[in-house]
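Backbones bend. We report:
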Amino acid sequence: MQLDFEDILAGSVGRILLLILFLVSSILMGGIVGGIAWAAGRHGLDPFQMVEGMLWGPLLLINLWLIPNAFFVVSMLVYLLVNDEFSHTAWGIIVGFESLFVMLGWGLRFPSTNDTVIAWTCWAVLLVMVETGIWLHRQMRINRWAREMAELSAENAMRRAEREARATGESAEPSGSTLDSR
């Protein structure tokens, strides 16, 4: 048996690239969620300012919370390297904490309390929406093959019954009945 170094190297490089894309996408999404909430508190619910919040979102991660944010990203990097899979849960946790770091850095600096309340309320609503979307995507991935697996299980049970009937010398179906698979 020979080791296939090309396959091992390609798998390792592919996994590292996938990890980098996974982290970058979750950090950007967290920054965008925090940026939109920040823009809502800063400008009100003006749709044109929401675009500004989306564009400024990742840059808003550079604030006083940069050191705890870097510690969190490194700890999640270690978790993902050790865990061996990139899950919806990890993506949701990273998005939530990155948006929290944006809000902790910029969401407490508004001139009025009303702006602060608007920003934090928008942040909570947006975060619930994003996390619900992540959960629904996870459920869709889990249930993707449920119908096909049920049909396959029914076909296997029917074949098993036919095989047992042939072994005993009986007919698998009672006379006069038809089997509808749908």
